[in-house]
Amino acid sequence: MAFRIEYYSLPNGREQESVMSNFAKHKEQLLKDPAFRKEYDALEGEHQALRAIIDARFETGLTQKQLAERSGLKQSNISRIETGRSIPNVRTLTHLAKGFGKKLHIEFR
């Protein structure tokens, strides 16, 4: 998963790293802990699914409400999925794919 570093200018003209950069630094520190790394790596599939859903929604330019209408899901369910508070099952992923105008493809590597 790639994190980007964004900058914004302070009134005095200096640049300050954004919250995303601070998160990336914090995550890098946490991943040095073997127990944390093990748990983080165990969630890789969920992270990939979540990232694919968010990326597809932004690529299609759909709002959560529009995706809900097209997929037959509730907007609140899509929100919970995108924030990581809910893990979608295969049926839900199939509905989301339909909403994106795509087909679900699952692959083992």
How would you explain this protein's 3D organization?
- The chain has 109 residues and is mainly alpha-helical.
- It has a domain at 46-100: lambda repressor-like DNA-binding domains (434 Repressor (Amino-terminal Domain), Orthogonal Bundle), CATH 1.10.260.
- It contains six helices and two strands; from the N terminus they run ββαααααα.
- It has helices spanning 19-30, 34-42, 44-60, 64-71, 75-82, 90-100; strands at 7-9, 15-17.
- Strands 1-2 form a two-stranded antiparallel sheet.
- It starts with 6 loop residues before the first strand and ends in a 9-residue tail after the last helix.
Short description:
The protein has helices at residues 19-30, 34-42, 44-60, 64-71, 75-82, 90-100; strands at residues 7-9, 15-17. Residues 1-9 have low confidence and may be disordered.
Quickly list its features.
434 Repressor (Amino-terminal Domain); 2 strands; disordered N terminus; mainly alpha; two-stranded antiparallel sheet; 109 residues; 60% helix; globular
Strand and helix order: EEHHHHHH
| The CATH top-level class label of the domain at 46-100 | Mainly Alpha
Strand order of the largest sheet: 1-2
Helix and strand content put the structural class at mainly alpha
Q: What's the topology here?
A:
Elements: E1 7-9, E2 15-17, H1 19-30, H2 34-42, H3 44-60, H4 64-71, H5 75-82, H6 90-100
Antiparallel strand pairs: 1-2
Helix pairs in contact: 4-5, 4-6
